[in-house]
Every structure is written in C-alpha cells, then in structure tokens.
Amino acid sequence: DHKGNYLALTDNEKTLLSEVINLKNGGVFKKVILLMNSANFIQFDVLGTYRDSIDAAMWIGEVGTSGAAAVGKLLAGELFPSGHLPDTIPYAHESAPATKNDGNYSYQNYSAFKDLHGRMVERQREYMVYQEGIYVGYKYYETRYEDYVLGNGGADAAVGSTDGAGWSYEKEVAFPFGHGLSYTTFEYSGFSVSRARSGDIEVEITVKNTGTVAAKDAVQIYMQKPYTDFDRENGIEKSAVQLAGFLKTGLLEGGQSEKYTVVIDESELKTYDPVVNRTYIIEGGSYYFAIGNDAHDALNNILAAKGKNVSDGMTEEGSAQLAKELSVKSDYSTYAVSEYTKEPITNRFDRGDWNTYDGNDGNPIIYLSRNDWAGTYPTGNVVLSMTQLLANDLTWDKDVVEDPDAVMPLYGQENGVTLIMLMDQPYDSPLWDQLLDQMTWEEQATICAKAYHMVGSAASIALPGSNQENGPVGLTSRSDFSRPQGNDYVYVSYPCAPVWGATFNTELIERLGKHIGEDLLYTGYNGIYGPGLNLHRTGFGGRNWEYPSEDTLLAGKIGSAACRGIESKGCMAYVKHLALNDLETNRRHASIWSNEQATREIYLRPFELAFTEGGASACMNSFTRVGPDWCGSCKELMTDVVRNEWGWTGIMISDWDQGDGPMSKIDGLLAGTDSYDGNVSGDVFLPYKDSPTACTALRNSAKHIAYTILHTNAMNGIDSGDKVKDVVPVWQQTLIGLTWGTGILALFSTGLTAAAYVISARNKNKNQEEKEKNDEETVS
Known about the structure:
The chain is of the alpha/beta class and 780 residues long. The longest helix is centred in the last third of the chain and has 19 residues, at 692-710. It starts with 10 loop residues before the first helix and ends with a strand.
C-alpha cells in the first residue's frame, strides 16, 4: 500500500483526500484543512498536487496526553499558531542525499570471516556510510540552491533531482526548514549586526505585528561562512546558511513593535579542518548574517545582498536590508584548544572515517562536495569489503593493555568519610581519594556493571540506591512492585521532541523540563532516559520522534533547555544516544563511517551543548559503532572528547544491554563507559581484579557515579551521620515466596536486586524511626 515508503500516503488516504476535495469543489464543504498527526514528516508528493485545493495545513506532531485539546482551540482561533518547522519538508524524502546510504547493508565479503575468533558474524557485518557529510536537511537543499543561482559546482545537474531532469529548488522542497505561519504577519526592520568586544556577534532587529491578531514570532538568524579556495582544495565543506541564533518573541498585539537582540557566540564562526590544521579554525573573509521567516527566506536575503534576483534563478526576490556582511579575520589558535578545559583539539575519529582507517579495502569514499555536485552526489549505497584488520577490530573483549604508570587502588580503608560530606567539594578535591579508598572492589564492580533503570548503593560511603526510568518525552509506565502505591501512577506524555524543536522557545522547553522533573519526584525516580539529541539525518529515522530537529543548533539549544529544567529539580537528564544513531534498522552494532568534520559539527554538537550549557549530568551512549569500535568502547569519544575536551564529569551508561557480546564490559570500562543498562553482575569484572589498569578505570567510573548522585535529590534527607544498609524489602520477600511456591524460582531470581534505605545513626523513638524508614526506603 505504501509502495515501500512508509512516509507515503496509502491508497486509502489518497482516495479519502481526493473525495474530500471533490466534495469541496461540489459545494458540500466550504474548506479543507489538513492535519498532519505524525512525528516524521509525511511524503508530500501527492499532497503537492492538491496544494491549491487545501485551504490550510497544520502539522501537529504527536500531541501527548492533552495536546489534542489545543488543536481544536487553534482551529477555532482561540489560540494562535507560532511554531516553525524543525525539518525541511521535501516533496520526496528520497531527494535527500543521506537516503542513498540509509538501510540494511553488509560488508560484501563478510561471510569469509564468519568463524573469526568464534564470534557470530551477524554482530560484525553491518555498516552505514554518511557519504553526505555535513549536508543534512536544509544544509543540503539551501546550499545546492545558492550554487544553482550562482552557477557554481554544477548544481543544476540532473543527479539528485526527483524527476531525473535538471535540479531546481522548487521541484524538491515543499516547505523549508524554519517555515511557519500564524493568524497574523510580522515585519522586520532596523536589522543591524555588530561585533562585541568579547568577539560575539550582536544582532538587533525590530519585529512588528502587522496584523490584528496577537501572536508570537520565532526570530531566526542565519549565517553564511565564506567557501574558500582552501576549502575546495582540502575537502572542507560549508553550507550556504546555518542557523546561528534564535529567540521567541513575547506576545505582540496587532500593530505592536518590539526590539530584540540575538547574541551569537563567536564559536559559531569556527569550522573543523580535519586535513591541514586538524582542528577548529576561523577562516578570514566575508561572513553574512540574515534574518528570515525560514532558512530559504534568509538565504534569499543574502543573495539579494550579493546583487542577485529572480532573473538569476531565485525562487523569489530577497531583501538586501535584512542581510549584513561582516568582515572576519582568520584565527587558527583560539578554538584549537577546548574553550572548557584548554585541552588541545585535534582529530579523534580517524578510525571512524573509512578513508583514514588503516583497515579499509583501498577504495575511498567520495564525500558529497558543493565543489562538484554532479561528481560527488551519492548514487547508491557505498559498497565496502571487509579486511582482516577490520575483522580483528570488530571483535570485542579485547586484552587489557596495562598502563605502566597504573597503581592498584586501595580498598576497604576506614577514613571516616561519607559521601554527603563532599557536597561542597570540587571534583578534584583530595577528599575524593579518601572516600573512594573506603569502597570495596565488589561495591565498585557492582555499581559499574549494573544500571538497569537504577544506580546501586554502596554502604561503605553511604551512597544510596536510586531509580531512573525511560523517557524521553515523559515517564514510561511499567509495573513496579517496589512502589508502595502499586501501579496507580499518573504518567504524563508530552508532545514529541520535534514539537519541542518547532517552538523555537528555550524558555518554554525549560519549563517543560521542570514539569518532567516534578513527574520524577512524584513517582519516586531521580533520573529519566532523555532527552534524545541525535539528528533527523533523513525523514525515515525510526527515532525521529525522540529527537528535536535536523539542525544541530536548534537540537542542542532545545535539548539544553530541557536538561536545565529537569536538573533544576535535582533529577538527572540522561541525554541520548551518543552518537551517530539515526536508524532503527542496523541500530545494534552497525559500523557508522563518517568524516571528522561531519562527526564533530553535525552529530556531536547537540550533545556538547547539552553537557556544557544544559548541565546534563548523565548520558546514554549508542548501540552503533564509530567505524569498527562500539561507541561505548571508543575512548576517543567517551574520554578524549566528552571528558577531556568538554570537561564533563557525569555518568555514562550503555544503551539496553542484553549481554550479547559487542557491548563489552571491559572494553567499555577502559574507554570511559561507567555502567550498563542491564541486569549485570559485578562478577563480570572478576577476570580483571588483579589488573591495576582495569581497577583504576573501575575506580574512575565509581567516582563519576558517586559525584553525580551526590548532587541529585537521591541525597535528600541524608546527613553526615547517616549510613546505608542493604536489605531485602518486603515486596521482594513476598515475590520470592510466591516464586518458590509456583516452582519457577529460576525464572525470577535473575531479576531480583537488593534494595537500600537510609537509616539514621541518631537516637530516635521506635515509631519515628519506623516511619522514617518507610519514607526513605528506595529500591536500587
């Protein structure tokens, strides 16, 4: 029915639409209004043929628990629409270059290696190539459009066009990124761009509501970096426009004007050069800044400032007054070191790029380049062959390479320190060593092995157990015998993440994050597995509903706002899935091959913002691989970038762990993964109990866990005299009895975990002590 495209209209939907329009033309209906109730944007080819017959169209996403009530009010005019598209809507999603390498692919000759080390070849054979590089979403469509207008790079070639004829923007794009309409119109004036002393760019704009209905507008500022000869010669890519800053206005009454300032961080000017400088650089030249109702509108304003008009192939005239040119000097040093830690920044992902990976098959990947659209546009999946080195690298449970400087940690010391005593101590305080010396090896191994919706307790340092739950747009309901209220919970489902992105409103999303934090507090959890921050690489992404946008800045800023809200309630926001995760097919253990520029600028940037601006204290990494290395065992990602470049100290856990091999506990531990989203025993680390290197890594992960939990609501009510005691709670004792009685103990016993509760060392009367014991009990 879908003809192989699950975003396309079914035959029934096409028939219904046709009949409704015929009824309108026959005078039965006055108007036809189309509501699109989906997280992924539907295929618009058929809808495009009815464009003149549909009076209005509203994308409402997935509306959550109560959003449907707002839809009726929007249609009735009681509320005003002010959202803007977080993605480009093409007529055919297949027109995006990323779709040419989006599917279920295996190394051509993988069967020759099926018996390698006795591993199952099914866990080694899959891959995907991000051949489109940085040209994801509007960064492809708008860049090709500018080159089409300017006559550069063979942009008018037939390759990549939907109908196989010459390429044109109007045939490909139904609605551009950032597009949005309201029941009024807005006018921009007084547009100015200046450089502050700090180096940041300050944009001022006056927004006027030119209609009669009160509404809000999304102010979108776009930037164009110069595409230089140096870039062309070295394969460095730059999009024609990129979102550089945005804000949501206040409620503007009809005729009302308001002046706004958007501050763009100087770091937005940088570009990653993986070839010559192997770091971030700012290239000197003319940078353009423009405002527009969407990305395409802003680019037309830039083209107008360059003297172009519709006679040059533009889709419509732009406004040169709404684009400004800013001269920027070259800077090859400021962003060559981390702005957070001063760690030198250089290539970390040469193993993740087939062209720089030592185990490639000798056939290089040709990445899409605006320098030659016709010659570099993907024409189909890139066919890769397995080599012996690749097969070796794809295995897991690798031998521990001992660090000669590693010293076996101390265990079981009696230093009289409890976790709560370090509340005001910095991460590098020497008191942390005294605290960690008190822990037993078994405690560290347990909390670092098992994180299935929980963080375990450690009596030696009075670390309480705590509970986390799935998200990312609201708690996932599940049966839980550990709760005194049973299963009677109010779980709130919020609108899908793309709707968050469509708000262009960080203040609103921070408030939403606070509501999620309140839900966590009410239901007894102190962390949620969300928000999701991967990109909509294509419209077909199976997790697009979890992720806000195709744009890095919008996704990062919206995700950061949600994190700030959740964390403000003392709860942990586990941003996910780090990294290179965009498709459900092949999500488990597929090798993702991407160049360093795209990996850093496109796929890691939203996470960087969530950690450094959003204060996210936890993260879930991905099933996928960076080249041959599972993300969780990629030290370059887990430690070199996340810890050393970004200065992050939070908890890093795996995605759902079924104990199925590639997500190796020892490989992940040594790379920087702290724990595993599975019911795993600490005994998994027993083979490495005598390894100073492995035990030091275990200690470091234990510190990440303890430091993070210390600053959450899991510590509420605990003081320096409190102790943590492991118990078997009543619900678990009852379940054990029932299990014995039915003869299926083996089935359930593997799922039973210990619990912890906080007891006070101070004298209390028996009734008060029992009451507090019941109040404070938590399941770990």
